[in-house]
Automatic annotation (TrEMBL):
<dbReference type="GO" id="GO:0003866">
    <property type="term" value="F:3-phosphoshikimate 1-carboxyvinyltransferase activity"/>
</dbReference>
<feature type="binding site">
    <location>
        <position position="198"/>
    </location>
    <ligand>
        <name>3-phosphoshikimate</name>
    </ligand>
</feature>
<feature type="binding site">
    <location>
        <position position="410"/>
    </location>
    <ligand>
        <name>phosphoenolpyruvate</name>
    </ligand>
</feature>
<feature type="binding site">
    <location>
        <position position="340"/>
    </location>
    <ligand>
        <name>3-phosphoshikimate</name>
    </ligand>
</feature>
<dbReference type="InterPro" id="IPR023193">
    <property type="entry name" value="EPSP_synthase_CS"/>
</dbReference>
<feature type="binding site">
    <location>
        <position position="171"/>
    </location>
    <ligand>
        <name>phosphoenolpyruvate</name>
    </ligand>
</feature>
<feature type="binding site">
    <location>
        <position position="171"/>
    </location>
    <ligand>
        <name>3-phosphoshikimate</name>
    </ligand>
</feature>
<feature type="binding site">
    <location>
        <position position="313"/>
    </location>
    <ligand>
        <name>3-phosphoshikimate</name>
    </ligand>
</feature>
<dbReference type="GO" id="GO:0009423">
    <property type="term" value="P:chorismate biosynthetic process"/>
</dbReference>
<dbReference type="InterPro" id="IPR006264">
    <property type="entry name" value="EPSP_synthase"/>
</dbReference>
<dbReference type="InterPro" id="IPR001986">
    <property type="entry name" value="Enolpyruvate_Tfrase_dom"/>
</dbReference>
<feature type="binding site">
    <location>
        <position position="32"/>
    </location>
    <ligand>
        <name>3-phosphoshikimate</name>
    </ligand>
</feature>
<feature type="binding site">
    <location>
        <position position="124"/>
    </location>
    <ligand>
        <name>phosphoenolpyruvate</name>
    </ligand>
</feature>
<comment type="similarity">
    <text>Belongs to the EPSP synthase family.</text>
</comment>
<dbReference type="GO" id="GO:0008652">
    <property type="term" value="P:amino acid biosynthetic process"/>
</dbReference>
<feature type="active site" description="Proton acceptor">
    <location>
        <position position="313"/>
    </location>
</feature>
<feature type="binding site">
    <location>
        <position position="170"/>
    </location>
    <ligand>
        <name>3-phosphoshikimate</name>
    </ligand>
</feature>
Length: 427
């Protein structure tokens, strides 16, 4: 990764924020729509996709194997499928979606496709996916069991039944399912091991596969069957990114203000009811209005006792709120976020402690006992959601100095500008 770090002191809010935020599309929906579109029988469009490092890397990865992906119009990306072929060299950056969703597609390409990424990407769990692909008939060279690796595609994948331990990441399952309609025998994926985290993301995969014409049976827990068959091209309406909105919603709680996420759909593939319950437990009011999804702070932030395994990517923002709460919190069920962009449990424990909070790190979570906080340097570890957590605390604590805010470009390059606009009350 060659990006220069951008130090940034988080702005402190002197008044309750009152703001409507227009956010780009969901990272997770955009990534799935790109993969499904590249595999479809005809062209597709993505309406209001996320334009950020992760999705641009996904577009580039697919393009390098043949499909045309036009990102010229930021509101409307166009994907035209073409025969998949190597040789190709793919940079996954630090994107779990690219490193887990694209190798199964590369198995379908004719020719070698190599993958590598940022230094920390080499540490993120990938081995179970590679073993599963091998069992399905794909030849892969991976000296370390992860990145760097080369998929030696022969233009087809036999498919069939496979057992995987996907407890390290739901993306290991999603990656297999997304490409499976193109496998000669489709796939039956059977998970064996501790629970698969982030269940709503697997549901999103199943829903989007079906929307593209895929036949998926997920009626048996931990078993997913995808029939072979051609996917259809279509127009994908990408929903605003709910996870990206969470730090902004947290600002409503911290300042006793109100934040609306504009353009929220009536029906969503993102876990909005779960988020609503969590924010309400912490003292927020969450309503759906014609303007969008609105979170109102009530003036108090309460501690939270919750298993976050299904919404684990929200842990950093919720941990930041917990550090500002009026009672202790216990966040559990998220051992696997040690394999996210950084070891998020260790990173949160270290940085929240440095600010003055009392934090006890366990193997699968954090106990956070709020104490008076003081501004200090906050290491962001190349992790966009660590930067979000620091910004949330900075609303209430002057002098929270992020080592690098540019890491937010992974999912929202506009983050520092949007955040400052919210705090300063400008649009
Ligand atoms: O499939 C996806 O789009 C995602 C799945 C989840 O991964 P894990 O299951 O590894 O938590 C989530 O945390 C990540 O941000 C996005
Ligand atoms: C875990 C995350 O990302 P990735 O898709 O890279 O796994 C995240 O965005 O919080």
């Amino acid at each position: 990764m060659t990006r220069a770090p951008l130090p940034w002191t988080a702005p402190t809010a002197t008044d309750p924020v009152r703001w409507t935020v227009q956010l780009p599309g969901s990272k997770s929906m955009s990534a799935r729509a790109l993969v499904l579109s590249a595999l479809a029988a005809g062209p597709s469009t993505l309406l209001r996709p996320l334009r950020a490092r992760d999705t641009e890397l996904m577009a580039a990865a697919l393009r390098s194997m043949g499909p045309q992906v036009s990102t010229v119009d930021p509101e409307r990306w166009v994907v035209r499928p073409r025969p998949l072929a190597g040789p190709a060299d793919i940079d996954v950056g630090l994107a779990g979606t690219v490193m887990r969703f694209v190798p199964p597609v590369a198995g379908l390409a004719d020719g070698p496709v190599s993958f590598d990424g940022d230094p920390y990407a080499r540490k993120r769990p990938l081995g179970p996916l590679l073993d599963a692909l091998r069992a399905l008939g794909v030849r892969i060279d991976s000296p370390s069991g992860g990145l760097p690796l080369t998929v030696h595609g022969i233009g087809k994948v036999a498919g069939g039944e496979v057992v995987i331990d996907a407890s390290a990441s739901s993306q290991l399952v999603s990656g297999l399912l997304l490409a499976a309609p193109e496998f000669e025998r489709g796939v039956v994926v059977r998970h064996v091991g501790p629970p698969v985290p982030s269940a709503p993301h697997v549901r999103m995969t199943v829903q989007m596969l079906r929307a593209a014409g895929g036949a998926v049976d997920d009626t048996t827990p931990d078993v997913w069957r995808v029939e072979p068959g051609r996917l259809s091209g279509r127009a994908w309406e990408i929903e605003p990114d709910l996870s990206g909105a969470v730090p902004f919603f947290a600002a409503a709680l911290v300042t006793g203000g109100q934040v609306t996420l504009a353009g929220w759909p009536h029906r969503s593939v993102q876990p909005v009811e779960r988020l609503r319950a969590l924010l309400q437990q912490m003292g927020g009011e969450v309503t759906f209005t014609t303007d969008g999804l609105t979170v109102r702070g009530t003036g108090a932030v309460h501690g939270l006792d919750a298993d976050l395994s299904d919404v684990s990517e929200l842990t950093p923002a919720l941990a930041a709120l917990a550090a500002l709460a009026d009672s202790p919190s216990r966040l559990t069920g998220v051992a696997h976020i040690r394999g996210h962009e950084t070891d998020r449990l260790a990173a949160l424990a270290r940085e929240l402690s440095a600010l003055g909070a009392e934090v006890i790190e366990s193997h699968d979570g954090l106990e956070i006992r709020p104490r008076p906080l003081r501004g200090t340097v906050f290491e962001t570890y190349d992790d966009h959601r660590m930067a979000h957590a620091a910004a949330v605390i900075g609303l209430a604590v002057p002098g929270v100095a992020l080592t690098d805010v540019a890491c937010t470009s992974k999912t929202l390059p506009e983050f520092p500008a949007l955040w400052s606009a919210m705090v300063n009350g400008t649009s």
